């Protein structure tokens, strides 16, 4: 009998998970391990690539053991990943030559300024759909090669491999297949959105040799058979984490929107097979590509700090002992006490794109308590999402009827209700909230025939709870105006 279980490696910013799904799209086993966050200096964020691989192997073995399954029970495995995080490793040995530079890292701010000096932040937007920003992996790779001329020489000679985390994990799980999918490639500032190929012009401008770049493949389709912990299992789906969530939420129709609440917050709208250029601070990106079918594009609003702000309350301020405590603490006060927290720790992403911004807490009085700060931290996620929604409405010309949500923070019902109140539309949480991993599993299973069509995937989607807006219009407008005042106070700090 053909296996009907599909696995997903979900390599995120703070942890790595392996989840096994059945043919109904329900999780039957899961294992997760956090990895270290390395901060060499202010604004710099790194990960140890070797540690990530070690944790990947461990969670695969743990999840299979928990379910009483072996790798032969898996029809396929998909991979999803933190996207712009940049790895450089030796082709011959597979050894990383530098820590991974994480998407949140801001060390390329001067390089981005130089690249845009005579042309502005939108120098490459027509080709890439992206503004010049520290967020993207092309400038991170350029920085690495500029810092060490020996690395640059080796990269040009084809001795080094560049990749985002999907490439790094796929290399490990397949015994050396050097690929990335179109969604991850679209986040590098090195791929042409129209041709779905590396741009020689962009690579030359950034000083990136083509010899170190991976092959670009579709999101859905077999890449190779696995080795090691997944020996013989088809690795058949690769999607950046937010694209995987779009896929897992079955947003296959133009105009459908999902928002993922994780370390950061990322909203994607399916725009069909034609890329839509944003005039309001959003990104144009590849949503997914199924085999030889045309690519599907998306508009994206990227917010750098949401769930990681709650971790910051825990780890840096110590006002909570675990992330789960924040809802109870925030709910202990009736409102935010006129306190607003703008977490511009890595600058402001969409729709502002201001690398000069830094985080602020405003409105503090002797009345304010740690509960008000906790509530302001939660509400910051909803306010930032509202800014992105407004930009998406302006770009697409479409009004939002509902918002499908997923990710770890959607278990926080205080946040979800406030989000619905602030948007004035229903917020819908699905039965499977961790749709990032589900999307990767769907991609791999679709490639291997576990599911015969995207209509079968649609049939799996089920609603868990619908949050209905209950806030008066005047209150909503007042809160939004106060938020805008707070955002103004983050600017021009650097």
Concise overview:
With 494 residues, this protein is α+β, with helices and mostly antiparallel strands. The chain is built from 16 helices and 23 strands. Helix content is 34%, strand content 23%.
Structural class call reads alpha+beta
Order of strands across the widest beta sheet? Answer: 17-18-16-15-21-22-23
Radius of gyration: 21 Å
Low-confidence stretches: none
- Proportion of β residues? 15-25%
Largest sheet: 7 strands, mixed
Number of DSSP helical runs? 16
Number of strands: 23
Q: How much helix, percentage-wise, in residues?
A: 25-40%
Rounded mean pLDDT is 92
Distance between the termini: 61 Å
Task: Please state the oligomeric state of the protein chains shown.
Answer: single chain
Shape: globular
Written description of the protein model:
The relative contact order is 0.13. A hairpin with an 8-residue loop joins strand 13 (220-225) and strand 14 (234-240). 34% of the residues lie in helices and 23% in strands. The model has no long low-confidence stretch (mean pLDDT 92). The chain is built from 16 helices and 23 strands. Strands 17-18-16-15-21-22-23 form a seven-stranded mixed β-sheet. Strands 3-2-1-5-14-13 form a six-stranded mixed β-sheet, sandwiched between helices. Strands 4-7 form a two-stranded antiparallel ribbon. With 494 residues, the protein is an alpha+beta fold.
């Amino acid at each position: 009998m053909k296996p009907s279980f599909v696995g997903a490696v979900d390599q995120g910013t703070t942890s790595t998970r392996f989840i096994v799904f059945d043919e109904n799209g329900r999780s039957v086993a899961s294992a997760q391990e956090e990895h270290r966050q390395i901060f060499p200096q202010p604004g710099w964020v790194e990960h140890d690539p070797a540690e990530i691989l070690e944790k990947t192997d461990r969670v695969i073995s743990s999840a299979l053991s928990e379910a009483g399954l072996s790798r032969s029970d898996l029809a396929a495995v998909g991979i999803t990943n933190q996207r712009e995080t940049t790895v450089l490793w030796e082709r011959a040995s597979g050894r990383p030559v530098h820590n991974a530079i994480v998407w949140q890292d801001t060390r390329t701010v001067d390089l981005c300024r130089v690249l845009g000096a005579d042309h502005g932040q939108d120098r490459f937007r027509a080709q890439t759909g992206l503004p010049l920003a520290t967020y993207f992996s092309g400038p991170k790779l350029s920085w690495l090669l500029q810092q060490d001329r020996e690395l640059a020489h080796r990269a040009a000679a084809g001795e080094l491999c560049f990749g985002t985390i999907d490439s790094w994990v796929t290399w490990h799980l397949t015994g050396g297949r050097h690929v990335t999918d179109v969604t991850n490639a679209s986040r590098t500032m090195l791929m042409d959105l129209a041709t779905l190929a590396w741009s020689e012009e962009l690579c030359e401008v950034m000083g990136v040799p083509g010899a170190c770049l991976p092959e670009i493949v579709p999101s859905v389709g077999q890449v190779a058979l696995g080795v090691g912990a997944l020996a013989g299992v088809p690795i058949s789906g690769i999607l950046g984490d937010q694209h995987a969530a779009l896929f897992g939420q079955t947003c296959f129709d133009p105009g459908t929107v999902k928002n993922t609440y994780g370390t950061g917050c990322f909203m994607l709208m399916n725009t069909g097979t034609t890329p839509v250029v944003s005039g309001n601070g959003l990104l144009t990106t590849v949503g997914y590509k199924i085999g030889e079918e045309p690519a599907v594009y998306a508009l994206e609003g990227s917010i750098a700090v949401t769930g990681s702000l709650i971790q910051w309350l825990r780890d840096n301020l110590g006002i909570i002992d675990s992330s789960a405590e924040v809802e109870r603490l925030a709910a202990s006060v009736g409102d935010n006490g006129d306190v607003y927290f703008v977490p511009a720790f890595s600058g402001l992403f969409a729709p502002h794109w201001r690398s000069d911004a830094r985080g602020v807490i405003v409105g503090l009085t002797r009345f304010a308590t740690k509960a008000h700060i906790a509530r302001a931290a939660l509400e910051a996620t909803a306010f930032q999402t509202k800014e992105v929604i407004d930009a998406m409405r302006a770009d697409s010309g479409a009004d939002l009827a509902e918002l499908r949500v997923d990710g770890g923070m959607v278990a926080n019902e205080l946040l979800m209700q406030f989000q619905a109140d602030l948007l004035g539309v229903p917020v819908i949480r699905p039965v499977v909230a961790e749709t990032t991993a589900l999307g990767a599993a769907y991609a791999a299973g679709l490639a291997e025939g576990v599911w015969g069509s995207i209509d079968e995937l649609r049939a799996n989607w089920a609603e868990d709870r619908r949050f209905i807006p209950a806030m008066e219009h005047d209150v909503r407008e007042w809160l939004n105006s106060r938020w805008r005042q707070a955002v103004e106070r983050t600017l021009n700090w650097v």
